[in-house]
Amino acid sequence: MAVDPIGEDLKAFLAADPDGPVVMLNLLRFAEGGRESYARYGAALRKTFLPRYGGEVLYAGDGGPALVAEQGQEWDAVLLVRYPSRTAFSRMVADPEYQEVSRWRTLALEEAVLQPTIPWAGK
């Protein structure tokens, strides 16, 4: 299963609205023992990379039992992270220092969804 964005997906992501703010939805399913590795990644993200690129964690929490979902669609954790622009997010994931620590994220996850969200008009 894919857990990291790839080049073609990032190009399409940037083409949508490179300068507008974006909130990234993260749905995470941890590999065996992955929470510790993800915590290490998360600490580096909050300490170094979010401040460097203007990002902010809006919400982070554990997933509970799904009320409406197909079998196997529950997630271990959910995060919402706001970035000032899609360009800022892309620059962060291209940063060589970020790529070094993102390996902890890759090792931590069995499956993930990373989806940009767009605010509804007037909200």
What are the defining features of this structure?
123 residues; alpha+beta; Alpha-Beta Plaits; four-stranded antiparallel sheet
Note down, in words, how this protein is organized.
This protein is an alpha+beta fold. It has a single domain, classed as 2-Layer Sandwich (Alpha-Beta Plaits), CATH 3.30.70.100. Helices cover 42% and strands 26% of the residues. The protein contains four helices and four strands. The chain has helices at 7-16, 34-53, 86-94, 96-108; strands spanning 22-30, 56-62, 77-83, 109-117. The chain has a four-stranded antiparallel beta sheet with strand order 2-3-1-4. The termini are far apart. 17% of the residues are buried. The mean pLDDT is 90.
For the largest sheet, list the strands in their spatial order: 2-3-1-4
- Helical percentage: 40-55%
Low-confidence stretches: none
Oligomeric state of the chains in view: single chain
Please tell me what the overall shape is.
globular
The whole-number mean of residue pLDDT values reads 90
The tally of structural domains comes to: 1
Count of separate DSSP helical elements: 4
Query: What is the percentage of strand-forming residues?
Result: 25-35%
CATH topology: Alpha-Beta Plaits
Q: What is the CATH first-level class name?
A: Alpha Beta
Q: Architecture, CATH level 2?
A: 2-Layer Sandwich
Find the structural class using helix and strand composition: alpha+beta
Report the span from N to C terminus. Answer: 34 Å
From N to C, what is the helix and strand string?
HEHEEHHE
Biggest sheet features: 4 strands, antiparallel
Radius of gyration: 14 Å
